[in-house]
Structures are given as structure tokens and as C-alpha cells.
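for the recovery benchmark. C-alpha cells below, seq after
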């Protein structure tokens, strides 16, 4: 299992929440800077897919600083709740909501994807952006999301993947494994966090492997699409009616 801090102890979950607490102050800046702003387009696409079910209640799992929740406001839902295990990320997200005058529209609370604090069948839709790769137990996290979705509810997952074109892969990997960890460490002062990123993407079961996991957990109508030459993928699946 790939963990951020190789030398220190603790399970993956503790290390992940510590890592995101450490980099929360720089997270939004680095996200947009290191992705050249492409992450905004990807989030837009994820929300476009969710629009198919016109969700009234949305759960943003591993919400971080809440960017996907903010994007989801376009769907005019009745309720958006974001949960995350990093209090540092949640605090930054809440500050942003206050700045944008959105604190009444979105609720960001502590919560673990692998033991969600909600009753069964509450949400019309759930979404996870760049979160599943960080779960300690992906199957358990997805099973919990399935539990809290209403029958017919839709899950959309946005996650990095490994590009397939050999030439593009070479260029991209140079950026992802060399330049990005250097810049990330320079700006965030946490070298491990930005070397963990490419390592965890490398170890992540992407494309049909991830769909297999979704189906095994119980999602139906599963599908994925590649974004930007396969740097990322959008996965979706439904809870059976
Ligand atoms: C790369 S950030 C993504 C944040 C946000 N979704 C975004 O798109 O910017 C990953 C987030 O997953 C959270 N996370 C990791 N494991 C989690 C878990 N088991 N339950 C809830 N959140 C988790 C981390 O704390 C972190 O904030």
C-alpha cells in the first residue's frame, strides 16, 4: 500500500489526514497551478454528468476545500454536504465558502468515507474528486457510498489515471514524476506529499480495473471516460432501482 510518509508509522488514513492538514494552506493554489487550471474543466465535466439525474441531495466525499461542491451549486440542489478526514482542508474550505457567501448553501463536516455518519438511502448523487486513490480501503469506501445513495442514485468519481499513448506518457511522466514533485515540495514545504501523488496514481487500479471494483461493490450501469489524453478519468455508476 502506497503511503505518503514512508519513514513514519501509522496507518494510511492517519498519514493522509496529516498530509492534507500540512498542505491545506497551499492546496488550492497548487491544484490549479500544477494542473495548468485543467482541473476546473474536469470538475465541470463531472457536474455535467451528475446533471443527468437532477440531484436534490448531493454528497461530496473527500471534499477537501470544497471546489467540487461549489461547482455542483450549478445544479441548484436542495442540499450539498461535503465530508473529509482532514480538518485543515475543511477549515480552508469553510473560509472559502464564507468569502464567496456560500456558507448557507454547502455544509462541510468531518467524515470518513469508510464509515459514513449518514443513514441509508439519503442522497440522490455522490461525487469523489481525487479522493478514492487516498482511501485506505477503496471497496469499503465505495460500499459506504452505495449504502447512503437512494436507489437510482448516481456516483461520479474523478481520478488521475495513467495515459496510454507511449509518446505522451513519456512527456507526461517527466512532468509528473520530476517537475511536479519539485514544484510541489518548493511551494508546500512537504516533499513527501508531492512525491506521494505520482506514486499513488501509479499504484491506482484505473480504467476497467476500477470499474470492476465498482461493479463488485454493487454499482450498476458503470462506465468511464478519459479526460485530457487519459491523465484523468471520470467513472460513474448507479445504485440499482
Ligand atoms: C486530493 S484531495 C481532493 C479534495 C477535493 N475533492 C478536490 O477535488 O480538490 C483528497 C482528499 O481526500 C481526503 N480523504 C482521504 N481519505 C479519506 C477518507 N477515508 N474519508 C474522507 N476523506 C478522505 C483527504 O483528506 C483530502 O482532503
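predicted aa per position
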Amino acid at each position: 500500500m502506497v503511503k505518503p510518509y514512508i519513514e513514519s508509522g501509522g496507518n494510511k488514513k492517519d498519514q493522509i489526514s496529516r498530509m492534507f492538514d500540512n498542505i491545506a494552506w497551499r492546496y488550492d493554489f497548487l491544484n490549479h497551478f500544477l494542473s495548468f487550471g485543467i482541473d476546473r474543466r474536469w470538475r465541470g465535466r463531472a457536474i455535467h454528468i451528475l446533471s443527468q439525474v437532477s440531484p436534490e441531495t448531493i454528497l461530496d466525499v473527500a471534499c477537501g476545500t470544497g471546489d467540487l461542491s461549489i461547482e455542483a451549486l450549478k445544479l441548484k440542489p436542495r442540499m450539498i454536504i461535503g465530508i473529509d478526514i482532514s480538518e485543515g482542508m475543511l477549515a480552508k474550505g469553510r473560509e472559502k465558502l464564507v468569502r464567496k457567501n456560500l456558507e448557507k448553501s454547502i455544509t462541510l463536516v468531518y467524515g470518513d468515507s469508510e464509515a459514513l455518519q449518514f443513514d441509508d438511502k439519503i442522497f440522490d448523487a455522490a461525487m469523489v474528486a481525487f479522493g478514492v486513490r487516498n482511501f485506505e480501503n477503496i471497496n469499503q469506501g465505495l460500499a459506504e457510498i452505495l449504502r447512503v445513495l437512494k436507489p437510482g442514485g448516481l456516483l461520479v468519481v474523478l481520478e488521475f489515471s495513467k495515459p496510454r499513448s507511449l509518446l505522451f506518457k513519456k512527456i507526461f511522466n517527466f512532468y509528473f514524476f520530476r517537475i511536479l514533485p519539485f514544484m510541489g515540495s518548493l511551494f508546500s514545504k512537504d516533499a513527501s506529499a508531492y512525491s506521494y501523488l505520482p506514486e499513488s496514481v501509479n499504484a491506482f487500479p484505473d480504467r476497467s480495473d476500477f470499474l470492476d471494483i465498482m461493479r463488485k461493490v454493487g454499482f450498476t450501469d458503470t462506465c468511464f471516460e478519459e479526460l485530457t489524453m487519459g491523465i484523468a478519468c471520470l467513472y460513474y455508476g448507479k445504485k440499482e432501482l
